[in-house]
Amino acid sequence: MANLLPVKDALRQILADVVPVGEEIVALDDALGRTLAMPVIAERDQPPFHASAMDGYAVRFEDVVGKTPMLKLVGLSRAGHGFAERLKPGEAVRIFTGAPVPEGADAVVVQENVTADGDRVQVNEAESRPRHIRKKGLDVARGDMLIAAGTLLTARHIGLAASANQAHLAVRRKPVIAILPTGDELVEPGSLPRDDQILSSNNHALSSFVRSFGGLAVDLGIVGDTLPALEAAIERGLDADVLVTIGGASVGDHDLVQEALVRSGLKLAFWRLAIRPGKPLMFGHLEGKRVLGLPGNPVSALVCARVFLHPLMMALLGRTAGDDVETVPLAEGLKANDERQDYIRAKLVRDAGGRLCARAMEIQDSSMQRSLANADCLIIRPPHAPTAEAGSAVEILRLDF
Known about the structure:
This protein has 401 residues and is of the alpha+beta class. The radius of gyration is 31 Å and the shape is elongated. The chain has 8 helices and 26 strands.
């Protein structure tokens, strides 16, 4: 198998010189799950003023340090309605949590330590240090970068952006991924297939895969095994950022996808990989667009999508995908591997000590979609990996789609 391309070399070619897609402006409430294209910069301090952290009385610390004075109540400060005057010696202002601390005050005495009678306030416990004030800019200072470009926006980020007075955000547009399922044997779910036909699942699974990682999927529809039909579908797919074909990537008598692509002008980079499952995987460039030819086997197609299409989408979104490999111990041992990098379907389980471990599923036949649906992750076994004992560390990719 010397002519099989290693996975790392294939991935390097697929990701070479990727330029992120352009940006668009969306309303803040539409930004969830999108990728930030421009950093969010704080336009003001947060809190924008010295704020009380407790209900109580704003005072001058020098009036209460080491003593229990009677102070004159001169006003009220509550959220949205601060006390506008400067506090003078011997004065106090009734204040509530989150309200602005009046100018001249530098401490808050909690209400439990005060007895109030009309406009007189008796401090019952001496203070040893200024307390209960959140300083201006405690959380955020004006000019701080709050959210970096390339961040996948969560509800927490939306809240932070809102606090920074951002009603709209610049996000990467969704990469458009055209999906081309091929094969005379395929029919859509909901039809009445003949005994020699297969229900098409790859296009639906891959469309969902693309959407789950922030892309826009365009299903070109099932195309039969004829060169004219394939070439016409390929032409339609070139409006997308990436064209993904399914099946027919090999060079058998009925594997016409590669031929149709080459006839359309594809510059083929490779089509045979040292990977299991998914050896017949094709990649090249056509009219400046990347073309990824996935195997027709449903398990192989989705595993290869996780290994290759996912990092490509992350690159198009201006994000990196190199940090999604995790290391966990094996729940059970694994035999030595051969020349192909193996991606083994596995469950994540807890051992007796509570550690998260990966347990390979018993049957790894690439035709078994149910085992893929029930798996939590893929154990990565490099080429020629030796026998691995239970408890030894392995790398995994989570099946988070």
